[in-house]
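Two folds, back to back.
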Amino acid sequence: MQLFIDYIPIIFFVAAYFYEDIYFATAVLMAVMPLVVIIQWLITRKVSKIYLASTLLVLVAGTITLVYRNPTFIYWKPTVLNWVLAAIFLGSQWIGEKSIVRRMMESAADLTDKQWFQLNLMWVGFFVVIGIVNIYVAYGFGEEFWVKFKLPGMLGLTVLFVVAQSVWLAMVMKGKDTETSEPEV
């Protein structure tokens, strides 16, 4: 559900871009993201910290984009967010009792410390790569392609990562089940 909520503003951003231009789309994004935060709070009494950070980053990068009439700042927003998340996830490996991934997923998976470390590093790698892909597409293919790529491309890469992670988890968990199961007599 959170993944869908995260992509609602991007849908508005893409539609606004093709209605007018990058500056109008940026203004729409700056309006929609805080609205989603408010709606999410009213419905669940919770707000995703990552989504809140993304909203604040959009407000800052969007304001600079609009004031200076330079879309570079909004191009970099996804990369900055993903690289900050990579740093936070990496740092969480050594700060605190458990990594962020372990805190998020511990109730759903029974892994060894080494496997939690590996899973956390997978997330770090994903955030780094998705940040690189964002900048590569923005500067390698131009503005219109970047805007078109944001919705299916970023969502697609995220879904692929989640599927790959799920396959890895299933293999690891199955291996753990085989190790702990008693031999048949």
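---
second:
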Amino acid sequence: MIDVVEFVSGGLHLNPSLLAADFANLESDIKSLEQAGATILHLDIMDGHFVPNISFGVPVVESIRRVTDLILDVHLMLAKPADYLKVFKQAGADLLSIHIETAPDPRPLFDQIRKLGALPGLVLNPSTPVEKIAPFIGDCNLVLAMGVMPGFGGQKFDPSTLDKLKYIKKIADTNLLISVDGGVGDNTITDCADAGANLFVTGTALFKGNIRQRFRQLNELLNKR
């Protein structure tokens, strides 16, 4: 199981979103990320109900697990996440994140996730007040603030996300993974880091060119702060 304390103490981490990868050459893209120094991969699971898009499911996660030992951060954008915790853990998930919008009291699901051998995360959409997740921040290992409405890549970053990150950082345990997803790229990544994020989900901004080069460029932006 992932050692969150060790991971957080290791500094700031890019978290490549494979939704933006080339699915005809997915293993090749993953190997490029490994060579660039990636430690974790972000997998967006969409059901066409909670979000207006469908991405991929258990077989793809299983295939990804077979070709990499990197941490798999599985983001469940599902109307009924409880029905899928076990199958995605069995497919290879190390982290399983659920939305506060679909689980107003997420603690029972956190318990299930831990019993399965994964670590729980909690996600909130841009339209959801950050205070909604405040009672549960101490009960999970990761909090993800969405910088765009989930469902599609390439959207513009919502600047109100920065205030949410600051709030989470202020009340969170020092070992919490504070993640941001959506619109994270050259013009926003350092602002997110300054606001308190330590995990940065990057999709379009990372996969739009040479993957290894783009990974290193974004990493340099973080390290120059």
